[in-house]
Design a protein that fits this description.
Number of strands of chain A: 8
Oligomer: heterodimer
Distance between the termini of chain A: 47 Å
CATH superfamily of chain A: P-loop containing nucleotide triphosphate hydrolases
Strand content of chain A: 15-25%
Distance between the termini of chain B: 87 Å
Strand content of chain B: 25-35%
Order of helices and strands of chain B: EEHHEHEEEEEEEEEEEE
CATH architecture of chain A: 3-Layer(aba) Sandwich
Number of helices of chain B: 3
Largest interface: A-B, 19 and 20 residues
Strand order of the largest sheet of chain B: 5-7-9-11-14-15
Radius of gyration of chain B: 27 Å
Helix content of chain B: 10-25%
Shape of chain A: globular
Number of strands of chain B: 15
Order of helices and strands of chain A: EHEHHHEEHEHEHEHHEHHH
Number of helices of chain A: 12
Strand order of the largest sheet of chain A: 3-4-2-5-1-6-7-8
């Protein structure tokens, strides 16, 4: 609690922002106070996905430049009164315009006020990414089940590992179950085996999530129980609860367990 | 009294970075005679040696304390030159074995590890990661990235991994033909790559084979 979590992926278009929005809502529905920060300055979209664009009058750069206070920039999601707030990114600036000391102060203050502060990290591994990861206690990396996404996320994990974060966890987003069954895409097991970090969520490819993002209504405010449960389970795992992971019977296991098993097996062989 | 001439090359004068090195063939039994030869040459070319720092060592083995003491005393007395002891590197006699580099982590995309000594890695080499060694590479994990052993060209090096599906693999200047790699090697098999008959061959360690 009172933690900052950066959500990152390396390449863009992987579904980071959708994950941030829905996981944020899920945590708030579980009763935690949550602030969401869109650090993707210049390509702001978290507030759009949340359906809060019209209400977000001020943005992150306004705060870093001292033009307004944090409170002025915090937009409340009235669907979860008192629990869920957002600071939108600026459309008119670039990531290099984020003053890193001001950003650090903002995150520090948000951490004191909220149980969870989630940073929607810009794509890439340049300045905006670096500022975001340096202000996070934990990271959630979002990957799609395709080799180039896995390669990018592996690179990102390698960079984040140097920051000595408390936790790095994984969400696999946009899993096409048909292709998975037919083994036409990289398997969950292979993704976890390569990336070697704890898997906390498997989100299927779903037109409902796409529609929800388009109308600014995160799926947890909708009627689809299955999708809502997926995000609520992710949120439960984030706060330390144990919910078994399944996707049509497939289980994910962390690499450290696998490696240790392998090493033990190797040394136990005669 | 005529002195026996001594053979060529039992006394060698060699220019080195700091001055001039006198090498004595310690196989030649008459050490005093060697020193007399040194003194004679130093005297003959006094002008050449003045100002230079003079060192002394044995050719095939280092001079011992007594030999050095005798050389310094005699040369100083006869020529007024101070001679300093020296140790040439004797690579052919003793190969210096560098300790292996031990790494306890998975190498991720974009990361590289480079060492002159053998590398022991407890972890995987992920796609997009590279390992370079002048010696051998031992991976207690999967090789999915690139591994280059025996760099630049030591074909005695080997590469070991628990699962072989490399993006590139070389031993010395030889590269593995990836098309020839059996896909079944990629998981759960302890394998090693070695050079036989000018080609890289992969072997499964049968004892470690998973059922």
């Amino acid at each position: 609690m009172n933690e900052s979590i950066v959500v990152t992926s390396g390449k863009g278009g992987v579904g980071k922002t959708t994950v941030v929005a829905n996981v944020g809502v899920a945590l708030a529905q579980l009763g935690y106070s949550v602030s969401l920060i869109d650090a993707d300055v210049g390509l702001r979209n978290l507030d759009i996905v949340m359906g809060l664009e019209a209400k977000a009058k001020r943005n992150l750069i306004d705060v870093t430049k001292g033009l307004c206070s944090i409170d002025d920039a915090l937009t409340e999601d009235k669907r979860l009164k008192g629990k869920l707030f957002l600071i939108a990114a600026s459309q008119a600036h670039k990531k290099e315009d984020i003053d890193k000391d001001s950003f650090h102060k903002i995150i520090a203050e948000l951490k004191e006020r909220f149980d969870y502060t989630i940073i929607d990290c810009p794509a890439g591994i340049e300045y905006g990414f670096n500022v975001s990861i340096k202000n996070a206690d934990r990271a959630i990396v979002v990957v799609n089940p395709d080799v180039s996404s896995v390669r990018d996320v592996d690179r990102v994990i390698g960079i984040i590992e140097k920051e000595k974060m408390r936790k790095i966890e994984l969400i696999i987003n946009r899993v096409n179950l048909d292709l998975l069954k037919k083994r036409e895409i990289i398997s969950i097991e292979d993704i976890v085996d390569i990336l070697g970090v704890k898997l906390i969520g498997i989100i299927p490819e779903s037109y409902k999530i796409i529609v929800a993002s388009n109308v600014g209504k995160p799926v947890l405010f909708g009627k689809d129980k299955e999708l809502s449960t997926i995000f609520l389970n992710i949120a439960t795992r984030i706060v330390g609860g144990k919910v078994p992971l399944t996707i049509d019977g497939e289980n994910g296991q962390s690499k450290s367990e696998n490696l240790w098993k392998k090493v033990k097996k190797t040394f136990n062989r005669k | 009294m005529a002195s026996r001439t001594i053979p060529d090359n039992v006394v060698i004068f060699r220019g080195i970075e700091n001055g001039i090195l006198i090498l004595l063939d310690t196989g030649f039994k008459d050490y005093e005679k060697l020193l007399k030869e040194v003194i004679s040459r130093l005297k003959k070319n006094k002008k050449f040696f003045s100002g230079a720092k003079i060192f002394i060592d044995g050719m095939k083995r280092p001079l011992d304390e007594d030999e050095i003491g005798m050389a310094r005393k005699l040369i100083s007395y006869k020529c007024g030159i101070e001679v300093f002891p020296y140790r040439i590197s004797r690579e052919k006699e003793k190969i210096e074995i560098k300790p292996p580099l031990i790494i306890e982590k998975t190498l991720r995309a974009g990361q590289e590890m480079n060492s002159e000594s053998d590398i022991i890695l407890f972890g995987d080499v992920n796609p997009g990661a590279r390992v370079f060694s002048s010696g051998s590479i031992f991976i207690y994990g999967r090789l999915r990235g690139e591994a280059y052993a025996g760099q630049p060209d030591d074909r005695k090096s080997i590469i070991v991994a628990d699962g072989f599906s490399p993006m590139a693999l070389s031993i010395g200047s030889l590269s593995l033909d990836l098309e020839s790699l059996d896909e079944s090697l990629s998981k759960n098999n302890f394998c090693y790559a070695t050079v036989i008959g000018g080609e890289i061959k992969i072997f499964v360690v049968q004892k470690m084979k998973d059922e």
